[in-house]
Design brief:
Helix content is 41%, strand content 21%. It has a five-stranded parallel β-sheet. Helix 1 links the parallel strand 1 and strand 2.
Length: 129
């Protein structure tokens, strides 16, 4: 049996957070999910937990108020390498803007841009599980 993965969900939609958390847990790839409705709060949590942070997968919404997904990635890129190595980031978006798509693909910190709504079989394929 594969070890359970650790997930952070970052999305300003409480509905999306609720649904995605339930989907991830029901899929059997995780038993708990940490949710954040603010990218800034998630970043503060990452920094605060740097010493004890397990390997995590972040599902990051692109369009959010206060700090959007790309702004989060910019700040994430400034964190120590030892912390960044523990994190894999997938950006979530329903965007059809080619500039956003190209920017996500060009980022060294974003593994892939996944379409919303999140589909667990597609995520599992991307995670190779």
């Amino acid at each position: 049996m594969e070890p359970l993965l650790n997930f952070f969900l970052i999305d300003d939609s409480s509905f999306d957070l609720f649904i995605y958390e339930k989907l991830l847990i029901k899929s059997g790839i995780t038993s708990s999910v940490k949710t954040f409705n603010s990218a800034r709060d998630a970043l503060k949590h990452l920094i605060g937990q740097a010493e004890n942070l397990p390997d995590i997968i972040i599902l990051l919404d692109l369009q959010m108020p206060d700090m959007n997904g790309f702004e989060f990635i910019e700040e994430f890129g400034q964190l120590p390498e030892t912390l960044r190595q523990k994190v894999r980031i997938f950006m979530l978006s329903s965007t059809i803007d080619t500039r956003d798509i190209e920017k996500a693909k060009a980022s060294q910190h974003i593994i892939d841009l996944l379409p919303k709504p999140l589909e667990i079989p597609f995520l599992k394929k991307k995670l190779a599980i």
